[in-house]
């Protein structure tokens, strides 16, 4: 085994590509470090905003008490509260001053402020903070003070252990694990095709020696990569002296509890867990390789149990025997509960058992799987009577690996969308808690304002009562109860209802309970028509349709936030904060197959997919002319120029549609297994411009008609539109490929034309002729939901016209390609 290991290791180390790994790692880390260092500091700004808001509230309360003191004097309790507020004001000024100059060492001042605020709560005056959040804040500040640490940038760190954690989560991710597996399988298959395995057997080396000899070098490389990536990731905090930040506490939400987990747990767990997981995949891969399974089926067979393991983790939660937790869903189940050492030890034992189980597999000389369908051995090409040119294209692409690589990338993009959607759904309890806390903070601010008004009302009532007693005027009537007290009680009840709702977050009916608390009992029809915006109207009308069809609403919000209420349309920072908060409280989540497709289209990921088709999968006339002029060979068979042009155009369509259908179908099936099909009749808001119908609604505020279309109909329309987009781009690519002799120049020109067309279509969207621009219809979801027609202020920018223009312009471009070139006269 030593000889094989040494031979394989030397072959790998001599490869010119091995130096790319550290170069890529260093380049990536330096780039991320540079980008993060140029960021404005969201965490710092968030701290600044938090304490500035508290300071404004304290100043507001102090001003109110001083005003009351100057007129009537203060009771003893309120005088003590005023003294406490003055002390809090001092601490808040110190904190704000430090944050203003970029000094985040505020733990001592914050702890002093929190201690004073705890005393202030006992004075039974106006509480202006969320007590639950203050408990977490106090625990975090105490942890920082205990380890002599400062607050630091968490979202875009660049010189602390939090930057190392961010890098660890990238370099030790499922993506890098899959990439390592691909390299390993490629090495196995290429050496097998070069008869390296036969060479070892000729030299009297046993199967066990050969296969373990191939496995060990990659395990060693895995260890070296882990050490190198860990060292480079830890280099910034080591150089800057910020390594103590490994004790920095990160908030992890479990149910309704927020726990603080130090950074060092990620730094310890991630490389070890990633290494064990990749090792398990390598062992599985080399066992399957022994049975001569083709590359694609080998990847598929390895991917299948990983997907099953992920589905099991979604449905049943943490399972100690499930290796998927080595790289996915580990933070809550392991890091926050101090079980990760035990789990890693158990997974290491599993790896040892798998290595032991490989012994009889490698020792066996029988090949169990003999099916020619699974064999990766090259077959002699025998052309079929029909479609010879299409076969010719397919063989060329297969040999270049374009088809398989494109398929893997497509599955990665669509599957990545599915993972993002499903992971967001898995984080719903955390999202629920953040949303409730955010809304409680808004209620606290409202409560402070109304309590001050209540105090002022009592003050005015006392003045009027005193003046009437002095004038002996008994005709003046005073309300027995302060009317603002009712508003305050309503706010307190709403706050308490939300607090009680936190305990129900993990229950099945939480979404319904949340919606019932948030929904208003007043219909928009009872309001003035000047308040009938799309958000208000559509939210109520959609709920009516959901009730009529007995459809379970998507979590979490009770409103359907229209595009008119997008935070990007805010007029100032305060307006933006309110709109952003409203959007987050009403963001929809789901994990069904149809919801995943909806998000995929809503995020307009199809643009990236189409770009990959252009760059990798498509064939053009230009690649036949240079550098290998195979077109001369084809045209002397004799095969006409038009036949070659048509066959390439047809091949591009077939391969593009096939890849899209297969990859999308696989991901949809996975989503179906995890979250079910979903509600095909789910009503989705669709905008309409210049169209009137009895079933449509009209908003006076936004000056637009709207109606509701079923989710399935919109997804089908989007799919049909994507088919037309590919048809158009295919024809454009084919025509440019005819005119340009270099294949890569063809790719670049196609990309530039597409980007320029899309940019101009959106830059001059209100132009009267813009509906004739095919690129305006590449914003797939906004075409089918009518938003593009609103932006362009034209009803002609719609699905039907988009389909017709894309197909007709694509056909026109294809036919132009048949125009023969004018021969030059010498």
TrEMBL record:
Superkingdom of origin organism: Bacteria
Spans traversing the lipid bilayer: 17-35, 167-189, 210-235, 266-289, 296-320, 340-362, 403-425, 603-621, 649-674, 706-732, 744-761, 799-819
Keywords, comma-separated and alphabetical: Membrane, Transmembrane, Transmembrane helix
Protein's recorded name: Uncharacterized protein
Species assigned in the record: Psychrobacillus psychrodurans
């Amino acid at each position: 085994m030593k000889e094989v290991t040494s031979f394989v290791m030397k072959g790998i180390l001599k490869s010119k590509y091995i130096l790319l790994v550290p170069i890529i790692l260093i380049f990536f880390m330096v780039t991320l470090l540079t980008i993060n260092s140029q960021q404005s500091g969201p965490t710092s700004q968030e701290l600044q905003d938090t304490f500035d808001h508290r300071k404004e509230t304290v100043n507001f309360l102090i001003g109110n008490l001083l005003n009351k003191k100057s007129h009537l004097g203060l009771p003893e309790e309120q005088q003590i509260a005023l003294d406490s507020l003055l002390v809090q004001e001092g601490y808040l000024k110190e904190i704000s001053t430090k944050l203003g100059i970029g000094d985040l060492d505020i733990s001592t001042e914050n702890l002093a402020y929190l201690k004073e605020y705890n005393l202030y709560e006992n004075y039974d005056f106006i509480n202006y903070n969320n007590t639950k959040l203050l408990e977490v804040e106090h625990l975090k500040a105490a942890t920082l003070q205990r380890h002599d640490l400062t607050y630091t940038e968490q979202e875009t760190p660049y010189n602390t252990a939090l930057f190392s954690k961010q890098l660890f989560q990238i370099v030790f991710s499922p993506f890098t694990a899959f990439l390592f597996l691909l390299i390993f399988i490629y090495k196995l298959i290429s050496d097998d095709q070069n008869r390296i395995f036969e060479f070892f057997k000729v030299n009297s080396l046993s199967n066990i020696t050969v296969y373990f000899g191939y496995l060990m070098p990659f395990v060693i490389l895995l260890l070296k990569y882990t050490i190198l990536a860990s060292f480079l990731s830890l280099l910034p905090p080591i150089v800057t002296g910020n390594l103590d930040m490994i004790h920095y506490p990160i908030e992890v939400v479990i149910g309704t509890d927020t726990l603080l987990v130090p950074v060092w747990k990620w730094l310890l767990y991630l490389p070890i867990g990633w290494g064990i997981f990749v090792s398990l995949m390598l062992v599985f891969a080399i066992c399957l390789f022994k049975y001569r399974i083709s590359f694609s089926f080998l990847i598929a067979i390895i991917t299948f149990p990983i997907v099953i393991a992920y589905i099991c983790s979604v449905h049943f939660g943490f399972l100690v025997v499930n290796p998927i937790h080595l790289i996915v869903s580990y933070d809550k189940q392991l890091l926050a509960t101090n079980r990760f050492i035990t789990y890693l030890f158990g997974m290491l034992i599993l790896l040892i058992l798998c290595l032991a189980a490989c012994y009889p597999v490698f020792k066996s000389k029988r090949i169990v799987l003999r099916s020619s369908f699974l064999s990766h051995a090259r077959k002699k090409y025998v052309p079929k009577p029909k479609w010879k040119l299409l076969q010719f294209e397919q063989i060329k692409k297969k040999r270049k690996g374009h088809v398989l690589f494109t398929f893997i990338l497509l599955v990665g993009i669509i599957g990545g969308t599915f993972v993002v959607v499903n992971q967001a759904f898995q984080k719903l309890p955390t999202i629920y808690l953040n949303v409730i806390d955010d809304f409680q903070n808004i209620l606290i601010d409202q409560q402070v304002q109304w309590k001050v008004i209540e105090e002022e009302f009592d003050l005015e009532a006392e003045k009027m009562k005193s003046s009437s007693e002095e004038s002996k005027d008994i005709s003046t009537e005073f309300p027995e109860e302060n009317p603002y007290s009712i508003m305050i009680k309503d706010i307190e009840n709403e706050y308490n209802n939300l607090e009680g709702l936190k305990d129900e977050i993990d229950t099945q009916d939480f979404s319904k309970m949340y919606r019932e608390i948030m929904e208003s009992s007043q219909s928009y029809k009872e309001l003035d028509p000047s308040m009938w915006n799309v958000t208000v109207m559509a939210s109520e009308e959609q709920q009516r349709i959901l009730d009529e069809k007995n459809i379970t609403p998507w979590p979490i919000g009770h409103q359907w936030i229209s595009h008119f209420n997008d935070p990007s349309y805010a007029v100032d920072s305060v307006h933006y904060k309110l709109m952003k908060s409203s959007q987050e409280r009403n963001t929809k989540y789901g994990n069904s197959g149809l919801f995943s497709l909806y998000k995929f289209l809503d995020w307009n990921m199809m643009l990236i997919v189409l770009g990959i088709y252009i760059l990798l999968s498509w064939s053009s006339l230009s690649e036949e002319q240079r550098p290998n002029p195979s077109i001369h060979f084809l045209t002397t068979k004799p095969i006409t120029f038009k036949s070659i042009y048509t066959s390439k155009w047809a091949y591009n369509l077939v391969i593009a549609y096939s890849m899209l259908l297969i990859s999308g179908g696989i991901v949809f099936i996975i989503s179906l297994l995890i979250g079910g099909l979903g509600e095909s009749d789910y009503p989705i808001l669709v905008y309409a411009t210049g169209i009137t119908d009895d079933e449509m609604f009209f908003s006076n505020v936004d000056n637009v008609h709207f109606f509701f279309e079923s989710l399935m109909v919109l997804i089908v329309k989007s799919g049909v539109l994507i088919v037309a987009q590919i048809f158009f781009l295919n024809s454009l690519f084919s025509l440019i490929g005819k005119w340009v002799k270099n294949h890569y120049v063809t790719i670049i020109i196609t990309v530039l034309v597409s980007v320029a067309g899309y940019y101009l279509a959106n830059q001059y969207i209100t132009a009267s002729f813009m509906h004739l621009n095919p690129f305006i219809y590449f914003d797939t979801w906004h075409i089918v939901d009518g938003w593009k027609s609103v932006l362009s202020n034209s009803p002609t920018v719609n699905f039907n016209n988009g389909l017709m223009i894309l197909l007709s312009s694509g056909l026109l471009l294809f036919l132009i390609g048949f125009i023969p070139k004018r021969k030059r006269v010498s």
